[in-house]
Amino acid sequence: MAYEEIINGLNLKDTELRLGLPGTEEEEQQQLQEVSCVRSNKRQFHETTDEHNLKEESSPPAKTQIVGWPPVRSNRKNNNKNVSYMKVSMDGAPYLRKIDLKMYKNYSELLKALENMFKFTIGEYSEREGYKGSGFVPTYEDKDGDWMLVGDVPWDMFSSSCQKLRIMKRSEAPPAS
Amino acid sequence: MGASSTLLMVSHGHCLLCFSCLVTLIAHFESHLKPFLFFLSISLSLSFRRLSVSVLMGLRLPSKVLEHIISFIDANEDRNSVSLVCKSWFETERRTRRKVFVGNCYAVTPAAVARRFPKMRSLTLKGKPHFADYNLVPDGWGGYAWPWIEAMAAKTPSLEEVRLKRMVVTDECLEKIAASFKDFKVLVLTSCEGFSTDGLAAIAATCRNLRELELRECIVEDLGGDWLSYFPETLTSLVSLDFSCLDSEVKLSDLERLVSRSPNLKSLKLNRAVALDGLESLLRRAPQLVELGTGSFSDDLDQEALSKLAKAFAALKQLKCLSGLWDVLPEYIPLLYSVCPRLTSLNLSYATVQMPDLVDLLSRCSKLQKLWVMDLIEDKGLKAVASCCKELRELRVFPSGADLDETDVALTEQGLVSVSEGCPKLESVLYFCVQFTNTALVTIARNRPNFRCFRLCVMEPFAPDYRTQKPLDEGFKAIVERCKDLQRLSVSGLLTDKAFEYIGKHAKKLGMLSVAFAGDSDLMLHHLLSGCESLKKLEIRDCPFGDAALLENAAKLETMRSLWMSSCFVSFDACKILSQKMPRLNVEVIDEHPPETRPESSPVERIYIYRTVAGPRLDMPEFVWTIHKTPEIGVSNLAIKHCCGRFTFHTLYLISILFPLRC
């Protein structure tokens, strides 16, 4: 779906079916701003440019990055560059989890891991009807901020564009296109 | 000359030295030496690293005997105490000291150290302040190893061991070491930078009796893996090799041959570029390894290769420490099961191991004493650690996403509470967490009063107790009240001046304290400087205190190794005043802009203050300002009130190090 969008160059964002609660993005932005303005009588933090922001214009505004905080040595941070930790949330589960997408070679490995992690079954995937046979639908947010169904695009494209994963309750997900 | 009939009594700890040994020693001496009665008891409290000496002497103690006795004393702190007793003890001690430790390379000149300890065999030096690890010290600040290497090459050429931390080491330095110290054995560089693999080649090629070459988290200009091939075929003395921080691939066949001809090799830490097949081949040649750092752990292996690797691991009967494990795939974790029951140290902080693979691994490590892991372990994993790893002494939990991020609650304060409950020997903790509660801290303190090192990093600056929204003052109060032996502490989260009042009041053994984004006023610093008797290193960032507390407690600074302050409200004026009143402190203002161009009371960016007998340093870059650079700058009237020029005991201590006491 997103693949076609790029090729045609049309911006179908406004009319696109999005898998996500309305207003989700804005909420997150507000939270971030609250975080950085707690003590206004304090000295301002040193700010560095947020690398991610230079690349993606459509993502939320820069989180204030403080020099040398958290106090982690740069070689640790550098090591983590090769690892892409993805947040995974599941509707109804108390905790967010993190996974490293690079550990999986295809969708079935990933889905199996998710099933193990959250103790649920994902159901059968079909291109036409999405996931059948379970109360949950795995979705992900891609580089453009769109929420997509996991499995619709080739694995390599998915693993390079996936930012976040969310396992939605079937009742919340709009019907598959 | 010689100890007089002085009675020195400083009692501490318990008596370890065997008295009969002394009696035998005395009996050994010829009877032409005046027979004398003396009662000599030395109680060495090795575990507390303090030498207590009670001496009741009838007549002088022959220097040979004294030398012999002092040779039993190893720890530097003890030797420092010995050297303060009187002139002859100072002389005897300095002529026999082999291991020299200098905690701040600018506190004393290389020439002075070389002159004082002619028999030096081992030199340990520390350079940049700790916050340099987090990019708070600009490049080019200092910490150069060259002057030290040059001085030792000239004065103490029998130097065998050099250990440097946070220093700038050039290829020239390494070449000088290789060329000057004929019996060079040990080079350990921790968090150093400034050299390339060419320098390593020089060490490898020239040091014929090299035993240890360890590069721990250094920033090295990597010109390729050839350096390893410079170890000559005649080198068979290697005991420890750590090149884990290098990027380039070394020639496997050369590494294999090196390992094969090193029967004493106990510690091998590979870099990420060494693949699993290489690992297998190396392990086969070194089944005696005690410490292993693997390379990348993620290649595709067929069944045969897997079983070979499993066999190689199973053959490591002496293995105690395991690290590396970059990119380890979950299906390879069972390969490690055979070594788990013997492991005492496991560093998974670069390994992307997640739950439940982590639990499978850790539940087999019943002897584990040291565990470094990422927050992927989650509370659940730490609970498993608490029930399986009863010998645990040190735990470090690092954040997997190193940027300030949204709340990720899989690792919470509960994890640390579980470990504090389940692991009775736990004494050292470094814990990164998004938020915390006072209750958790109080529980942890109650469970584990034996903490020596407690470093909590609540990653959200100013984060209060997330349940009560109160500051974390009460939580840290519990920590310092209960943990009477606390030597190192890092605080975080929302903290008022009260927290520091508690720290000043209770943390009497605290040697090092790190503070960030905390406190309300000058009181905070005042509490710390006036309360913490044992404080040696204090590092503070982004705290709202100014000149008053600093100037009021100026004398305290000479009793400490160093004080770092950045993004606080200290003015250049205060720095000038402090520097003028305390000539034995170097007060360095590290600022992009010349401080004089700032308005008088405007705060400077960073200050680094340290005691020194070496005077102002001669290698300051342009962004470091001291009054020695611009001596004609005057002092405002306001400052005269804050003068603290009285000599303290500690100043005398410093002088006595250089100039022998007269009895």
Automatic annotation (TrEMBL), chain A:
Task: Say which domain of life the source belongs to.
Answer: Eukaryota
For region Disordered, the annotated ranges are 40-73
Keyword set, alphabetical order: Auxin signaling pathway, Nucleus, Repressor, Transcription, Transcription regulation
Q: Which InterPro entries match?
A: AUX/IAA_dom, AUX_IAA, PB1-like
In terms of Pfam families, this protein maps to:
AUX_IAA
Q: Which residues form the signal peptide?
A: none
One CC-aspect GO term? nucleus
Ranges for domain PB1: 83-170
The entry's function note states: Aux/IAA proteins are short-lived transcriptional factors that function as repressors of early auxin response genes at low auxin concentrations.
Subunit text: Homodimers and heterodimers.
Name of the protein in its database record: Auxin-responsive protein
TrEMBL record, chain B:
Molecular functions per Gene Ontology: auxin binding
Query: Record's InterPro entries?
Result: COI1_F-box, F-box-like_dom_sf, F-box_dom, Leu-rich_rpt_Cys-con_subtyp, LRR_dom_sf, Transp_inhibit
Keyword flag Transmembrane:
yes
Asked if Membrane is a keyword of the record, the answer is yes
Q: Identify the residues that the record assigns to the F-box domain, covering every copy.
A: 61-102
Q: Where are the transmembrane segments?
A: 6-29
Q: Please, which domain of life does this record's source organism belong to?
A: Eukaryota
Q: One Pfam family of this protein, by short name?
A: Transp_inhibit
What's one GO-annotated cellular component? SCF ubiquitin ligase complex
**Localization of this protein:** Nucleus
Q: Which CDD domains match?
A: F-box_AtTIR1-like
What biological-process terms (Gene Ontology) are attached? auxin-activated signaling pathway; pollen maturation; SCF-dependent proteasomal ubiquitin-dependent protein catabolic process
- Which UniProt keywords are listed? Auxin signaling pathway, Developmental protein, Membrane, Nucleus, Transmembrane, Transmembrane helix, Ubl conjugation pathway
Q: In which pathway does it act?
A: Protein modification; protein ubiquitination
The name this protein carries in UniProt is F-box domain-containing protein
Q: What species was this sequence derived from? A: Thlaspi arvense (Field penny-cress)
